[in-house]
Amino acid sequence: MSKTNVVRLATLALLLMILAPTAQGAPSAAEKAEAEALFQEAKKLMSQKRFAEACQKFEASQRLDPAGGTLLNLALCHEAEGKLATAWVEFGDALAQAKQDKKNDRVKIAREHLEKLEPRLPRLVIRLTGAAPPGLVVERDGVQMSSASFGTPIPVDPGERRVRATAPGFQPLEERISLGEGETKTLTLPSLSPKSRPEVPVASSSSSTPLPPPPPSHRKTLAYAVGGVGAASLVVGAFFGFRTLSKKNESDRECPSATTCSARGIQANEQAYMAATVANIGVGLGVVGLGVGAYLLLTAKTELTSFYRVAPMVGQHGGGLWMQGHF
Asked: What is the 3 state secondary structure string of the chain?
């Protein structure tokens, strides 16, 4: 490939790169048709002095198919609606567009309205009290302001304006101020108040502080539980008591004397002894359990300043409930 062809291909590629975004951003035929319909409807609404509705349709038309004529009409609409600062900005953009399009009639209209609007514009000066906290954000009517704008008269639309200031670790602040045509007012924002930090309770290092007693409802639950264990222990003790008597009778039949006893009698005697041991433990646990359960139930409604621990205990020759504490 010759050097000339390489240069031509490179130039063509460069042109395609430049023109591609423009082609992609151009409105489609359907969008242009919709924009034109909105523009014509907005003109009718303007003639009927329904400015708020007309401005909305001009804005929608401009978004679909940006045009210098639509922008100029939008500025005229906002001026008629009373949004002077908004119209002032739009007339400035329309003037620049008209100069670029070499539309002298539009240039004249935009200049005339800019000159008439200039003295009518309300201006708001926002100042801070003291140094700005780190991360300070100030919004005017929901639009964030640059810190360079503080102290500068900024054109705003007439009416009530809302200013909100926020910063991490501080309480948000909101102020409102009303301005009329041609007025210049200063709004000084007070210093933001730090957010209150919740107090964190410090745990006591003393080991002698008694634990709070369980609430009455928990005491009742414990009473029923201990009483239930006691009742079950009585049932077990009664069962093994009857078994003791049964095995004792069997041993007596097999062992008519102290020196005469069969193997079955010896086994029955051992079983009787074991059953008697379990019966004694069961009856003992049952009596103590029912007693403790009754006490806890009867004192459940009183204020408790005690602690206690209850556990079963089984020994070599008997059993019962082991308790520790004070009441």
From this structure: CCHHHHHHHHHHHHHHHHHHHHHHHCCCHHHHHHHHHHHHHHHHHHHCCCHHHHHHHHHHHHHHCCCHHHHHHHHHHHHHHCCHHHHHHHHHHHHHHHHHHCCHHHHHHHHHHHHHHHHHCCEEEEEECCCCCCCCEEEECCEECCHHHCCCCEECCCEEEEEEEECCCECCEEEEEEECCCCEEEEEECCCCECCCCCCCCCCCCCCCCCCCCCHHHHHHHHHHHHHHHHHHHHHHHHHHHHHHHHHHHHHHHCCCCCCCCHHHHHHHHHHHHHHHHHHHHHHHHHHHHHHHHHHHHCCCCCCCCEEEEEEEECCCCEEEEEEEEC
Render pLDDT for 258-289 as a digit per residue (tens, 0 to 9).
566 667 767 767 776 777 787 678 677 767 76
Cα separation, 264 vs 254, whole angstroms? 7
Q: Could you tell me the CA-to-CA distances from 218 to 231, 308, 326 in Å, in that order?
A: 20, 13, 18
Which tokens is 312 given?
Answer: 């079963």
pLDDT digits (tens, 9 = 90+) for 154-173: 999 999 999 999 999 999 99
